[in-house]
Amino acid sequence: MSNDNVILRFSGVNFEYTHNKPILDEASFSLRSGSRITLMGQNGAGKSSLFKMITGEIKPTSGNIYFTPKDVSIAIARQVMPQNLAELSIRDYFATAFADKKYNLDKLIRDIFEVVNVDLPLDRQVKALSGGQQARLLLAHALIQNPDILLLDEPTNNLDQAGIEHLTGFLMMYEKTVMVISHDADFLNAFSDGVLYLDVFTHKIEQYTGNYYDVVEEIKNRIERENLQNARMQMQIKEKLAQAEVFAHKGGKLRAVAKRMRESAEEAESAIVSVRQEDRTIREFKIPAQEFDKFFDGKILHFNSISAIKAHGVVSKEVDLAIRKNTHVLITGPNGIGKSTMLENIANNKDEHAVIAKEIKIGYYKQDFSNFDFQQKAFDALKEVMEKYDEHNLRAAAAGFLLDGKLLDQPIAALSEGQKGLLSFCRLVLMKPGLLILDEPTNHINFRHLPIIAKALDNYEGASIMVSHIPDFVSQIRIDQVIDLNAL
Questions:
Q1: Strand arrangement of the beta sheet that strand 481-484 belongs to
Q2: pLDDT in tens, 291-301
Q3: In this structure, is the dihedral angle defined by the CA atoms of residues 101, 106, 108 and 113, taken in order, positive or negative?
Q4: Mean pLDDT computed over every residue of the chain
Q5: Span 368-385, pLDDT tens digits
Q6: 316-355 in b/e burial notation, b at 16+ Cβ within 10 A?
Q7: From the CA atom positions of the chain, what is the Rg in Å?
Q8: Burial class of residue 453, CB neighbours in 10 A (0-12, 13-18, 19+)
Q9: Segments of 202-280 assigned E as strands
């Protein structure tokens, strides 16, 4: 629960990466010590940039950021593991959390592992871990510093349900200040006591008090009220101007009445409020399936064995499982059991026990987007997957995923994580794959987009294999076959 001490204050903060591309415009807000705040905003609105300003990684263009006390400690659990840190052992990775050498580092790590509900050998290389295990490490790396302000950037990405529940319980009991970026509405509602909303259109920050669902409802009601007020004002303007027109043509003293009518219309015009635009939502879309000749038997993928990683080593089970056209498969199991490894091996045709039919086009949504060349322009990443290049179709498809010309002209590295996710889906649309491989396709995606994405995956007529830890999302998609790696 928060107290009366303000620990962080933004005062008239402006920020832009390049001239005339503002991220924040006169942003002002304050956070009380012990508060638990959700940071909301559309993909690309600047949420991660705001975190970087708090940590000092980037500086405001103008305005001031105040901390009380000045030496307040800050730690951030980032969305993805930095590549240079992924090369380290777990022990060396946690050593980077401290300025000085910790002689009891192993004990500190073991203690924080209990908090994030994971048990891993400290000499294992970070990059050898699953996405879910790395997500726990990113969180633990921040928590082990015991910061005054804890910043969590999409902390539930790649976590299984048990991991999400464990994190939620921890945050509900956490006594220091927390700010969270997440698109998991249920997770946020469990512990939030306030919301900061970054408006992607005005670049302003709005501050609200209350739990997540209450704030979302408040914003919705405010927009409805403002729209009703504007409708009434527009009606008055129309009536006053029509009356002024009538009186103006009658001459004499009635011209003065016409003038007052026009002035009244101007007053009504000034009463029109600027309605906060709602987050844009992607357009409905279809992922076209690859077309096959009439002699194709429909069998896209065949498993003769399935493997899982368990405490005592790799466990394999012989199977005879054919995945045909219009078949949707869900892979389940806890973090670290080998789901992502399985999907990556299939996507790269490196699993000798999973035979893919000849000439099948594979569309792969990888959870960390590492299958992209981050130096490549977004436009070129879309162009290269088209069987027949058509710039108009490319830009039209991209626009449906909120990727405008400016974004398409940027290197992929410059996109937000959410925009990389939308770029991935746009690629799938233009590629027209026969086999769709989806590893945590909800990661980084604005929750407003998820029903539209689920509908597209539900209607996909090729073969698909998916890993997802979000039950509500999975429930919206037809699943024909479940492979539970934990049951092997």
A1: 362-365, 435-439, 463-467, 328-332, 481-484
A2: 988 778 889 99
A3: positive
A4: 88
A5: 898 999 999 999 999 999
A6: eeeeeeebebebbbbbbbbbbbbbbbbbbbbbeeebebbe
A7: 27
A8: buried
A9: 205-209
